[in-house]
Amino acid sequence: MERILLQLSYNGADFQGFQIQNEGRTVQYELERILKRMHKDFIRIHPSSRTDKGVHALMQYVHFDTTLSLPTNKWQHAFNSALPDDIYINEVTKINADFHSRYDCVGKAYRYKVYKAPHRDVLKRGIETHITETLDTRKMNEAAQYFIGTHDFTSFCSAKTEIENKERTMYKFEVIETDTGYEFFVIGSGFLYNMVRIMVHFLMDVGRGKRQGSEIPAIIAASDRTKAGKTAPAEGLYLEKIYLSPEELTQDIPKGTTITLKPTRRQLTQQS
Known about the structure:
Keywords: Isomerase, tRNA processing. This protein is 24% helix and 27% strand. By secondary structure, the protein is of the alpha+beta class. It has 2 domains: 2-95, Alpha-Beta Plaits; 107-252, Alpha-Beta Plaits (2-Layer Sandwich). The radius of gyration is 19 Å and the shape is globular.
């Protein structure tokens, strides 16, 4: 038995999300469909992140166990020759049996892309969010710093979130003005359902002058989803990077930042 790690990218515009749903296309289904054909049996994959409907991934990891013995280049060819053109396997690695894509993930980075134009650009449909107004980048960056640190993000996640522990650590959050609009880049220990999109919409309202960044601490303390405002559209959101080691994460966050590590899979097994 071997454990295989896939690094993949996908355009989420035409997917109902990563995880298998009752209806519609999902990334998980496409990957498991190929594995079932190769093994003549069902093989479960385990992702580092379960992106929502319409959300894209520049870097996503999944692992699975297999009885087949193939070189990594053959695995890559087997997937990419059968996958639809909105998913691509970038890299295949054989890993230790105690590695887990989810539990060994120490951080994630997301980027949200917005373009500013008087009219919608149909060529950007599904890949960037459209606005018509100019936003105040300085105010948005100042407000973003209130998210840094460890907080209970109940107010900034969907009310449908089923996870009880809503405490997460944000290491970096910046708003970048681009030639065509704005990008919101955030690195954290993990993210809750719709969390990035709710934070981004709040920051955009700060940039519009509708909200104040100084409101954020009180909103976090309230643990009340209704206090944070609306959710930004899914189309502008990209899972940009998955960090599988503290060393990788340290390179991308401010120097001297303390990293909050989740229990490993082995530790969780011992606790259960």
